[in-house]
Specification:
The chain has 251 residues and is an alpha/beta fold. Helix content is 45%, strand content 15%. Helix 2 links the parallel strand 2 (32-37) and strand 3 (57-61).
Length: 251
Amino acid sequence: MFDLHDKVAIVTGGNGGILLAMAMALAGARARIAVVGRDAVELAASQAALTLRGAVARTYAVNVCNEAAVSAFIAQVVQEFGRLDILVNNAGINIRKPVQDLALAEWHSVIDTNLTSAFLCSRAAYPHVKAQGGKVINTGSMMSIFGASFAPAYGASKGGIVQLTRSLATAWAADNIQVNAVLPGYIDTDLTRRAHVDVAGLNERILARTPAGRWGTPQDMGGIAVFLASAASDFVTGAAIPMDGGYSVQA
């Protein structure tokens, strides 16, 4: 049920951290991978890592906030790989400021990167995934559940990801497309590592509240990616699944 042999997966934001780990897991289940990002150096590193794993993988430098670029990229992937089965939407940024200090341009930058890109990629992928049925996996956050004074735009975007997931799941169920969200907790990546400095006392509060007693690692996200991309989850849709070591279930 977990075999992804010959399936084609697009992974956005996949040039580091969580999504490179998810791409590696999908490749390990024998999917063919198209990795999308903006940084050419990081994309080259992702390509090297996936190739070393024995994956059939290609990388693409694309601005996933640009409607025309997204449509062209999706069409290119289908032309080169012959099909599209799985879309993982993970492109994301954060600007840590209280709302009163956040400029409108900063707000738009976060919302467009984190939420609008998922809409654009999902919409462009739909007719290709519909051809045989498939999966969409959206990356939310603990900020899909909790508020944070230092992340108003990020929280709004990740709350929106959950609602977008539910809408797509409802709309596309008849097309045999399952759409789910994963909500990573505090995962030790370059993006979250900066929060140790930006937010005083954050690390101590996280460790005190997390029953697992640690931050997650990107590799912790691999299993859920394979599950949600595979036939094992064919009756799971519209779900938002915390991956947080128990953080969100604490009072």
